[in-house]
Amino acid sequence: MDTALADRLAAVDERIRDAARAAGRDADALTRIVVTKFHPASLVADLHALGVRHVGENRQQELTAKRAQLTGIPDLTWHFIGQAQTNKARAVRAGADAVHSVDRARIADALHHAAAGDDVLDVLVQVNLTDDPGRGGVAPDEVDELATHVAALQSLRLRGVMAVAPLDERPARAFERLRRCADAVKAVVADADWISAGMTGDFPEAIAMGATHLRIGSAITGPRPTRD
Ligand SMILES: *Cc1c(COP(=O)(O)O)cnc(C)c1O
Questions:
Q1: To test ligand 1's pocket by mutation, which of 63, 100, 199 has the most ligand atoms within 8 angstroms of CB?
Q2: Whole-angstrom Cα distance, residue 162 to residue 155?
Q3: Predicted pLDDT of residue 228
Q4: 58: CA distance to ligand 1 center in Å?
């Protein structure tokens, strides 16, 4: 086992506890998702041995492959946090326990139609906090409309909002906008109270704003291998 991995995980968890305490929040109520994208399935197994139960992936093929390699580890929750393509909806749905990146009605519809039997998939509306419409996520003023659309799809359970903070703005300021979007979603579905925010560079600010699900990669895994 990689002791450096254990040390980094412990250090991040301590920073999560510190940030929660500073914000008057209960750290045990936060879900720390370790983003394992680009890393091999063996890293996910190592993290599981260290007690990690929530992992995040951003590409469907990688998610599908790792999950297949780790069928011996059933008590992992897999979060899909990447751009979802409609023609991959079935595979995303089969591989993910929660999809954080629903940013248009079409992908919500595709995930809904990919349901097998009566299973229900947890989904979040991804919000674009930048001025660049090319980035993933729905514009803040369209959150209400998309949330209403998702809420009507019976095989999806709308849980809340997700966002990545822009690089050119103080994260705390951007997260304030996300918080307002979270309230807009709660006005549609009262118990949709997840706020997925906070990465290696900004998770303390996300905790201060009210994030419930942190998506932390490199601070725990170390640098990502370059991708082919
Ligand atoms: C890669 C990624 C993360 C984790 O990023 P780090 O900076 O390594 O913590 C979080 N969220 C999304 C959507 C990502 O793609």
A1: 199
A2: 20
A3: 56
A4: 9
For the stretch 122-179, pLDDT in tens is 999 999 999 999 999 999 999 999 999 999 999 999 999 999 999 999 999 999 999 9
Distance of CA 149 to CAs 73, 87, 102, 112, 125, Å? 35, 20, 11, 11, 11
126 alpha carbon – ligand 1 mean position (Å): 14
The residue whose CA is least distant from atom 7 of ligand 1 is 200
- Burial of residue 71 (number of CB atoms within 10 Å: 0-12, 13-18, 19+): exposed
- Give the count of alpha carbons within 13 A of 125, CB side only: 32
To test the ligand 1 pocket, which listed residue (35, 81, 224) has its Cβ within 8 A of the most ligand atoms? Answer: 35
Helices 143-151/105-113 angle, 10° precision: 10
173: amino acid identity, one letter = R
Quick: pLDDT tens for 189-222. 999 999 999 999 999 999 999 999 999 999 999 9
Both tokens assigned to 199: 């990465």
Query: What's the whole-model pTM score?
Result: 0.97
